[in-house]
């Protein structure tokens, strides 16, 4: 971490890609140069960033790290099938409206005036997307995470177009709500379906792939600084061999970190055959994948990892 670089704050004040790399590293997030570059551009150009990639490669985590590094609130919209405008943008407090009507009737108020108030700020329920257009108590915009957009219905994307292009939301009863300072928007997708071109055009794009062995070891060292170096090298090597297999769901970085923590809890200093079958469920989440790997196949892969690490020419070998 380079202490000579200024901390991340307002994206319009970001000075370099190195500043983004350094700021994320301060939150134990190891970003590649390509990822840090597109994050830097998204901040400087005030554009949403669409991140696609396999589950568990760090798409959600980068939004969390950015919010922490910038000292901003993270507002997260978790997408799901059936997500609609009332759950994501805004809704009206119907019970409160009915109570206001009854009180007005009992007190003899002018019902025309009451009707005008019923669809005003006092009765508006702000959902995550509308909340993200507001500043916090310190006058800072939020980091908005629209997570796993591919899980939502295609029609839901239409709700997002106005927000992602103009940082505003139109409420028929009230008019247009516009952000005085745009939030930093991160949209993620596991690519279970294609995101519509209209939304993609409004975003910068980056495919977040599985990290290299060197990067994954750096990630483990940043998140689990006390881990034994030999154990880290062996488990990363084994995970990378798993990703070469024809599995239904290869392990992501999140599973690598979970496995490393599990092995630490088992006081492991190196990978042993007896530990593999017992802990494969930390890495693999489908029984068919576990059945294909456990036993002799897992031991064969482990032997290859240990042989690779023992070879003097291997860059991951412990010197």
How would you describe the overall organization of this protein?
By secondary structure, the chain is an alpha/beta fold. It folds into 3 domains: 11-80 and 142-159 and 183-207, Rossmann fold (3-Layer(aba) Sandwich), CATH 3.40.50.300; 90-123, no CATH class; 213-306. It is 47% helix and 12% strand. It has 15 helices and 9 strands. The protein has helices at 17-25, 33-45, 59-70, 85-88, 94-107, 111-118, 128-131, 156-166, 197-200, 213-223, 229-243, 253-265, 273-283, 287-293, 296-310, and strands spanning 49-52, 74-78, 90-92, 124-126, 143-147, 168-171, 175-178, 184-189, 204-207. The strands form 3 sheets. Strands 2-5-8-1-9 form a 5-stranded parallel sheet. It has a two-stranded antiparallel ribbon with strand order 3-4. The protein has a two-stranded antiparallel sheet with strand order 6-7. Helix 5 (94-107) packs antiparallel against helix 6 (111-118) and helix 12 (253-265) packs across helix 13 (273-283). It is elongated.
Write down the CATH class of the largest domain: Alpha Beta
Q: In terms of per-residue confidence, which ranges show pLDDT below 50 for 5 or more consecutive residues?
A: none
Overall average residue pLDDT: 91
Largest sheet: 5 strands, parallel
* Number of self-contained structural domains: 3
**Sequence of secondary-structure elements:** HHEHEHEHHEHEHEEEHEHHHHHH
Q: Give the strand tally.
A: 9
So what's the overall shape?
elongated
Rg over alpha carbons: 24 Å
- In DSSP terms (H or I, runs of 4 or more residues), the helix count works out at 15
Quickly give the structural class.
alpha/beta
Termini, distance in Å?
24 Å
Q: What is the third-level CATH name, the topology of the largest domain?
A: Rossmann fold
Helix content: 40-55%
CATH hierarchy: architecture of the largest domain: 3-Layer(aba) Sandwich
- Biggest sheet, strands in spatial order? 2-5-8-1-9
CATH superfamily descriptor of the largest domain: P-loop containing nucleotide triphosphate hydrolases
Strand fraction band? 5-15%
